Amino acid sequence: MKFSIILIIFFFLFVFPIIAFGDLRVGFYSSSCPRAEEIVRQVVQRNFNRDRSVTAALLRMHFHDCFVRGCDASILIDIRKGNSSEKAAGANGTVRGFELIDEAKRMLERACPSTVSCADIISLATRDSVSMAGGPRYDIATGRRDGLVSRASEVNLPGPGSSVSQALQVFTQNGMSLDQMVALMGAHTVGVAHCSFFRARLSDPNMDPGLQATLGRICRPSGRDPTVFLDQNTSFAFDNQFYNQILLKKGVLFIDQQLALDPSSRGLVSTFAQDDDGFRRSFVDAIVKMGTIGILAGSEGEIRRNCRVFNTP
Ligand code: HEM
Ligand SMILES: *[C@@H]1O[C@H](CO)[C@@H](O)[C@H](O)[C@H]1NC(C)=O
Ligand SMILES: *[C@@H]1O[C@H](CO)[C@@H](O)[C@H](O)[C@H]1NC(C)=O
Ligand SMILES: CC(=O)N[C@H]1CO[C@H](CO)[C@@H](O)[C@@H]1O
C-alpha cells in the first residue's frame, strides 16, 4: 500500500513531466523571469490593438520557423553578407511581424537579460495573438533555445500549388499527421495572400465564379501584387469559417481548395466546418505539437540577445 503510493508520487514528480513535455515545461521561466509571459502578452496586445493582422503574421512566422530546423528562431536571422539566412528563401519573402518580436525581446532583455529565448517569444506571442483574435486559449511549454544556423537552402516548405498528398509529405517529415495538418491549415481563417500566390487559379473551375470575378478585378493591374483575405467571410476572426468557405469553393489558394476536394481530407474539413469547438480542440493539439518540432533545450543552442543575429556571428 505505502509502496504503491510512493510509486505514484515518483511517477508524477519525475516520470510524468518527462513523458509529457520532453525538455520543455509550462512555466519554465516562473523563477528565472517571472514576468516573461506577461511581458510578451502586453507587447502583443499593444500591437494587436493597432493592427489586428498581427495574429496572421505570427501564426505564419511560427509555422515557417518550426518547419525548418525545428522551432529555434532560425527564421529571425537577418541576411548578412555571405550568409543567406532563411529570410532569403522565396517562401519567406512575405513573412512579417519581425518588429513585434524585436520589441518583446528588448523588453525581456531589460527585465531579465539573456534568459528568454527568441524561439519561446515566437511561440508565446503566437499563442497570445490567437486568443486575442477570438481563438482558443492554451498553455504552452517553454524552455526552447535559439539555433545557431539559418540557411535559405534548407527551407523546404510546401508551396501554395501543392496537392494534399505533397503537403502531407512535408508535414509527415516533421512528425505531423493528416488530421493535424488539416487543423493547422485552419490558421488560414486569418490573414492574406498576395495575388502572385494564386494567379493561376483565376481560371480554375474549382473556384466559385463570384469569387473568381472579384479576385480577377483585384489582381488584374499589372506591376503590383495586391493581397486578398484567405477567409472571405470572417477575415480577422479566428474561427472555423475557413472550412465553410472552402466547402463553398471559396478557397483562395489551390492547396486550401484541395483540402475540401481531396477524399483524404474532405471528411475532416466537413467535421471542422460543423463543429467549431472540435476545430478549436484539434487546432490546440496540433499547434502545441508543432511547437515542439526539433526544439533545442538544456545547453543546446543559445539565448540570443538580439533575435536577428547570432550572439557570436
Ligand atoms: C501546405 C501548407 C501551407 C501552404 C502551402 C501555405 C501557403 C501560404 C501562402 C502562399 C500564403 C500567402 C502568403 C502571402 O501572400 O504573403 C499563406 C499565408 C498564411 N499562412 Fe499558410 N500555408 C500553409 C500552412 C500554414 C500553416 C500550417 C499555418 C499556421 C499554423 C499557416 C498560416 C498562414 C497565415 C496566418 C497566413 C497569412 C499571413 C499574413 O497575413 O501575412 N499556413 N500561406
Ligand atoms: C554561413 O555561410 C557558410 C557558407 O555558405 C556556411 O557554411 C555556414 O554554415 C553559414 N553560417 C550559418 C550560421 O548559417
Ligand atoms: C459567415 O460567418 C458567419 C459567422 O460565423 C456565419 O453565421 C455565416 O453563416 C457565414 N456565412 C457564410 C456565407 O458562410
Ligand atoms: C525579405 C526577403 O528577403 N525577401 C526575399 C525572398 O526570396 C526572394 C526570392 O528568393 C528574394 O528575391 C527576396 O528578396
TrEMBL record:
Ca(2+) 2 binds at T189, D231, T234, D239. Its EC number is 1.11.1.7. One of its GO terms (cellular component) is extracellular region. Residues 23-311 form the Plant heme peroxidase family profile domain. GO terms for molecular function: heme binding; lactoperoxidase activity; metal ion binding. It is found in: Secreted. Its main location: secreted. GO terms for biological process: hydrogen peroxide catabolic process; response to oxidative stress. It catalyses: 2 a phenolic donor + H2O2 = 2 a phenolic radical donor + 2 H2O. Belongs to the peroxidase family. Classical plant (class III) peroxidase subfamily. This is Peroxidase.
